[in-house]
Description:
This protein is mostly helical. It contains five helices and two strands; from the N terminus they run H-E-H-H-H-E-H. Helix 2 (67-73) packs parallel to helix 5 (196-206) and helix 4 packs across helix 5.
Amino acid sequence: MVKTNELNPTIKKYSKMGIIATAVIVVAALGIWAISGKKTVSVETAIKGVSEQAVTGADLRIAVISMDKIQMESKVLEDLHKQRENFENKLKNKLEKEQKSIEKEKADIEKSQDVLSQEALQRRVVDYQRRVNNFQRMLSEGAQSIDASYQAALSTIQKKHLDPVVEGIIAKKKLSLVIDGRMARVGANVNGLDITDEVIDSLNKKVSSVKMDTPKGL
């Protein structure tokens, strides 16, 4: 009986990623220790050169956008998701066809064990294992290639279309700060704070589709 690894053509699914990266500020907790021979100063002395100026509430113009909603409702990103799904289906069909052929070869080898010479049987087993290895590589490389093509298209959408739209709205509204809604908690009685619909409407007018490059092997 020829022993083989189970074949699993499951295509890796990738999590949706936000178009605009959320700024994350990491504050490291530093220990305070005495360093022999080094002079230290007080906090007051250390911050002496810091300006007293700060933005006041009256000067701030803030808005919030929901990147999740932009991904779900903008035409260009909806189209991009469909393109990725089509490529994933092509890869799946290609893998399923190859798997059926490999499984048939396995069955043929098992039936021929008592007929073929040891040398001939060994050649078929080696060839079979080579096909299994190629299948596994096809699965991994295909999924990675689709993701790379998708991410490249996302980057194009952000740099050439979404960023300019957001920046244009910031300029028109004279905004001081735009916050990704995933990091914000907004009260119920704040009018005009969420500009997501305006971003989506403007983005839809600017572009409806950005073509993914055909992934390698498809």
